[in-house]
From TrEMBL:
Protein purpose: Iron-sulfur subunit of the cytochrome bc1 complex, an essential component of the respiratory electron transport chain required for ATP synthesis. The bc1 complex catalyzes the oxidation of menaquinol and the reduction of cytochrome c in the respiratory chain. The bc1 complex operates through a Q-cycle mechanism that couples electron transfer to generation of the proton gradient that drives ATP synthesis.
Listed Pfam families: Rieske (PF00355)
Gene Ontology molecular-function annotations: 2 iron, 2 sulfur cluster binding; metal ion binding; monooxygenase activity; oxidoreductase activity, acting on paired donors, with incorporation or reduction of molecular oxygen
Co-factor requirement: [2Fe-2S] cluster
Record bears the keyword Ribosomal protein: no
Keywords attached to this entry: 2Fe-2S, Disulfide bond, Iron, Iron-sulfur, Metal-binding
Organism the protein comes from: Streptomyces rochei (Streptomyces parvullus)
Name the record gives this protein: Cytochrome bc1 complex Rieske iron-sulfur subunit
InterPro entries the record matches: Rieske_2Fe-2S, Rieske_2Fe-2S_sf, Rieske_Fe-S_prot, Rieske_Fe-S_prot_C, TAT_signal
Domain Rieske: 39-137
Length: 141
C-alpha cells in the first residue's frame, strides 16, 4: 500500500514460520477427520499363538497398530489402533480400554466403540482368524 513501510525481512520470515507451525497443528487436529479411513495393516499381522490367548483377554500389538480380544465364547475380534479422531497411533491398553496419547480419546478394545471423546467414530474392525495355530489379523487375514 502506498505510504505504508514495507515489512522487514525478519517480520516476513517470522510470519512464514508461524503460519507453517499453525498449519501443522491444524492438520493434526483438523475437523472432519472423524470418519476418514485410518491406516490399516497392509499385510496380515501375526498376533501370536492361538493357544496363548485365553478367553476374556485382550492383546495390543504396538508395532502393527492392532488390538485383538478373545471373548468368553472364544470368538476373536481385532481393530486398528489408529485413533479415528486425528490418526494418532494408540499405544496404551489399560485392561480393555485403549487410550489415545494425542487428545485423550478412549476406546473399548473388545468392541472398538468410543468410550471418551473427542473421537466420535469407532475403531476400524479388521478381519481376524486362526491360521495354522496362529492368530492373524488385517487385510488378507
Amino acid at each position: 500500500m502506498p505510504g505504508r513501510p514495507a515489512p522487514s525481512r525478519r517480520t516476513v520470515l517470522r510470519s512464514a514460520a508461524l503460519t507453517s507451525v499453525a498449519g501443522l497443528g491444524a492438520a493434526a487436529c483438523s475437523p472432519g477427520e472423524d470418519g476418514a479411513a485410518p491406516a490399516r495393516p497392509t499385510a496380515p499381522v501375526d498376533l501370536g499363538a492361538d493357544g496363548e490367548m485365553a478367553k476374556g483377554t485382550t492383546r495390543l500389538d504396538r508395532d502393527h497398530h492392532v488390538v485383538v480380544s478373545r471373548a468368553d465364547d472364544g470368538s476373536l475380534k481385532a481393530f486398528s489402533t489408529v485413533c479415528t479422531h486425528a490418526g494418532c497411533p494408540i499405544r496404551k491398553l489399560e485392561g480393555t480400554k485403549l487410550v489415545c496419547p494425542c487428545h485423550g480419546s478412549e476406546f473399548d478394545a473388545r468392541t472398538g466403540e468410543v468410550l471418551h471423546a473427542p473421537a466420535t467414530v469407532p475403531l476400524v474392525e479388521l478381519p481376524v482368524q486362526v491360521k495354522q495355530g496362529r492368530i492373524v489379523a488385517g487385510t488378507g487375514a
